[in-house]
Amino acid sequence: MSLVQAGLVAVLFSVGTFLVLHRSLTRIILGIGLLGNGVNLLILTAGSRPGDAPILGTGSDPTDPVPQALVLTAIVIGLAVVAFLLSMAYRSWTIDGNDVVEDDLSDRRIAAEPDVAQDFGDET
Amino acid sequence: MLLLLLAYGTTAAVCLVGHRRLGAAAFPLATLPHLATLVWLVSVAGGVLDGTPVTAELAWVDALDLSITLRLDGFGLLMGLLVAGIGALVSVFSVGYFSADHDRARIAGLLTAFAGAMLGLVWSDGLLTLFVFWELTSVASFLLIGTDDRSATARAAALRALLVTGTGGLSLLAGLILLGIASGEWTISGVLAADPTGGLVSAALVLVLFGTATKSAQVPFQFWLPGAMAAPTPVSAYLHSATMVKAGIVVVARLAPVFADDAPWRPIIVVCGVASILLGGVRSLRQQDAKLALAHGTVSQLGLIMVLVGLGTPATTFAGVAVLLAHALFKASWFLSVGAVDHVTGTRDLRRLHGVRRLPVLAATIVLAAASMAAIPPTLGFVTKEGALEALLEGGAGWTGTLALVGVVAGSVLTVAYTIRLAVGVLGNDTDGSHANELHTPGPALLVPPALLAAAGLVAGLAAAPVGGFLARVAASLDPAAGDSALYLWHGLTPALGLSALVLAGGFGLWWISRPATREAAAPRSASTVAYDRAYEALLSGSRRITGSTQSGSLPLYLGIVLLSIAAATGAALAVDRGLLDVSSFPIANSPLEVAICLVTALSSLGVILARQRFGAALALGGSGYLLALVFLLQGAPDLAVTQFLVETVTVAVYVLVLARLPQRFSSAPAWAPLGVRIALSVVVGLSVAGFALHASTAREAPSVAEEYLRRSEPEAGGRNVVNVILVDFRGFDTLGEITVLAIAGAGVVNLVAAARREQRRKHLDDGTDVEDLSGRSPGVWR
After folding, report:
1. In chain A, which end has fewer C-beta atoms inside a 10 angstrom radius, N or C?
2. For residue B99, is pLDDT > 90?
């Protein structure tokens, strides 16, 4: 694995993380897409050294096919995940009129008034 | 033995499952396992008392070497007789006590389940078996105290009892495990035979004593027992005076002969026990509810038995067993009588009870039970109390023995006083006219069980010699040296007799003096109840505060914390152990072309952030993905590159399709943290992942399976593209799973979009917009 490849992994993960930490659902999905790409690159480059394609009879120095098989699966699954998330964002937009990830309401209530008896547990 | 326990379990299950239909038949049904147990116990009694215990073992979890180990010795026989005998009488009593308003089958089922668990507890030999049955009795007690589940008081009392005894149960478990580790034996008999010593054992004993103190309602954990009186009276009579609260005593009695000389044992038991004796007695004097007065008296009596068996000398062990029997008889009789009084008059308030003395059988029962409780000759209570004083006068336990003697004498004075007060309170008033309570005539089911128990106390007192002989053989199973003890109704003018007379006189005097003060006194809440309530409140509000401060409800914040933790763990490992990552050992790049492509890919990725519009962001993402395909190609992965190209194309298409329906710009929601913080967090995550990747690329320990795949690809699968062969042949089922995931996601997408469309259409209908406007667009996801 070269330092440049590692650098690209770092950029993909940084950008992906930054996007995932947004409140906008579409940005989060973009971030997940980038994180997925980053993971794929990481597995491939950390798991094998560069070489000829692992196709018999085409090169003298074939590279490791196992990470490639893994990553190929991951790419396709990544597509499925992104498509599903996008349609959820679409649905959320048709219901709420926005695509913002809201704070959890009951959590906020506890944070605001920790001493007030909640609708669970306390009987007094 | 196991069959009997199974019978209890089955009966309980029948009652609980069929409780709608069973109704009044439940209690008669519940007496059956008790009777079977009694018959069996009597049939084996001879052999057991001669010193050959009956054992049974059932493998439970073989792999963990866990088994249900039971062992019936003399003490187990006595406890079994009490549990089954009083259980049968309580069942009979319940027939008369409970009306159709109660869920009789549920109560009967739980009582039966409890009885089974209690028998298991007193017969347990395995340390863990003991713990399991111990907890089962706590759970049954919790359910039974909360029988009246519409009453907040009953629910709170049930919860309190469960929390206190449950905490004690955990402590007991820890203590038992330590004992097991210290001795290498996992049965009580084995531990006693091994007689381990050392610091571990002392710690174990403290933990065990904590557990037994909670269960047997010893100071400072006595407060749950009066609260438990929220249970129906037959339940209180059975669980909270005769049997369950003796569980702690059972454990102490078994361990005491061997471990009493261990440093912490006697001081803890005697101090807590004497405190219980005195506190229970004083509090009992101040109660106006007859049942509560009895409950506080039970705390006092339990303290007495605890002190006796806990001292662990042969004489006190024997006396403890004897007092245990006497107490079970007279206290159960008392409770059932009070239950009958309550049933007949509708009140248990000592200030309002009138005319009970006109019911001859009930009145005689109460007098007998009171005589036994106050240790008036010739009852069993007197005989055993004399035995206890005798044993304590004998000494042999150092200063703790002296303290115990003083405590027991003072406690006995209190006992006499509160017994007289109770008996006078229940029977004393017979003002006729308007004050008289309306009396129902109690049926035989309400009268016979308490009368039998009270009569047994009298007969056993008169027949002190044979009963003493029986109890001596019972005590011998705990401590062989106790085998030649005996009980006497009259053994001459001894110091013990003098003390007894002194106690009776003192008790009578105390009652007489305290009469005015206790007539209207309202009992204050005990300090430990207050402490418990405070601790419980603090626990609830504390956990709410912790939840409030950690659970802000913000998803990005949670995610940020998770990611930062991962990055910090990885980064810290890489930073601390320099050997993990030597940056200079890696090439800067594999080729100049790689540098250029990676640079452009990185810039394109940054573009995703910088884009202000959704389309721009989607295009930047697509660009980054296409360029990544080139990186794959350079690495020697043409299959990946092709797939990445195709997938990226589809992804961008889906983005565009969906984004076309969303507003152009990103919605502006308030950020959860300043921009600088978010950037710093992202960079830290990215760098630590890159560091991890670099380390991972050098961390291979075994040769790759690649050689194998390369070698076998052509001859076995007939394919030259090894990646392809792996996916469709060697790992074909993985690919099948992958396709399934894809199909499910596709179905999800179609449904979500279709649902969203339906909703939009309805919205348009509500707005009065033309439907055609929407349906003009073609149906389906992909248009």
Report:
1. C
2. no
In a domain? residue B336: yes
Q: What is the DSSP letter of B1?
A: -
Of residues A26 and B142, more confidently modeled: B142
pLDDT tens for each residue of B350-405: 888 877 888 888 899 999 999 999 999 889 999 999 889 988 988 777 888 889 99
Do the domain assignments include residue A124? Answer: no
**Interchain contact, A65 vs B614, CB within 8 Å:** no
Number of domains in chain B: 1
Residue among B546, B574, B590, B640 with most chain A CBs within 10 A, to mutate? B640
* B693/A42 touch (CB, cutoff 8 Å), yes or no: yes
**Per-residue model confidence as pLDDT tens digits over B255-306:** 999 998 888 899 999 999 999 999 999 988 888 888 999 999 999 999 999 9
| Domain extent at residue B309 | 2-520
Q: Average pLDDT for residues B611-621, to the nearest whole number?
A: 86
Instruction: Tell whether A120 is covered by a domain.
Output: no
Task: Return d(Cα B8, Cα B241) in angstroms, integer.
Answer: 21
Which residues of chain A lie closer than 8 angstroms to B709, CB-CB?
65-66
Contact B640 A84 (CB under 8 A): no
Contact B653, B618 (CB under 8 A): no
pLDDT (tens digit per residue) in B564-574: 999 999 888 88
Contact criterion met (CB < 8 Å) for A3 and B672: no
What's the structural domain count of chain A?
Answer: 1
Compute the mean pLDDT over every residue in chain A, rounded to the nearest whole number. Answer: 83
Q: Does A96 touch chain B (CB under 8 A)?
A: no
B80 close to B38: Cβ distance less than 8 angstroms: no
A-chain residues within 8 Å CB-CB of B696?
Answer: 42, 46-47
Sign, CA torsion B570/B571/B572/B574: positive
For B456-510, the pLDDT digits (tens) are 999 998 998 899 999 999 999 998 888 888 888 877 778 888 888 899 999 999 9
Roughly what angle, to the nearest 10 degrees, separates helices B464-476 and B26-49?
80
Tell me: pLDDT of A117 over 50.
no
Residue A44 falls inside a structural domain: yes
- Residues 6 or more apart from B495 whose CB is under 8 A from it? B389, B393
Lowest mean per-residue pLDDT among A109-113, B230-234, B581-585: A109-113
* B595 with A63: Cβ contact below 8 A: no
Nearest CA in chain B to A54: B722
In a domain, B279, yes or no: yes
Is A34 in CB contact (< 8 Å) with chain B? yes
Domain extent, residue A103, equals 3-112
According to DSSP, the residues that pair with B613 across neighbouring strands are B665
pLDDT of residue B769: 52
A121 within some domain = no
Q: How many CB pairs under 8 A join A and B?
A: 328
Please state, in angstroms and rounded to a whole number, the distance separating the CA atoms of residues B418 and B434.
Answer: 28
Please provide the DSSP assignment of B39-67 as one string: HHHHHHHHHHHTT--EEEEEEEEGGGTEE
pLDDT of B549 strictly over 80: no
The CATH number linked to A51 is 1.10.287.3510
Identify whether B568 is part of a domain.
no
Q: Report the SS3 class of residue B349.
A: strand
Query: Can you tell me whether residue B289 is helix, strand or coil?
Result: strand
Q: Which of A64, A82, A113 is best to mutate for the B interface (most B CBs within 10 A)?
A: A64
**Does B599 reside within a domain?**
no
Taking CB atoms and an 8 Å cutoff, what residues of chain A touch B598?
4-5, 7-8
- Cα Rg for chain B, rounded, in angstroms? 38
Average of pLDDT values for B300-316?
92
Supply the ipTM of this predicted assembly: 0.88
Reply yes or no on whether the pLDDT at B215 is more than 90: yes
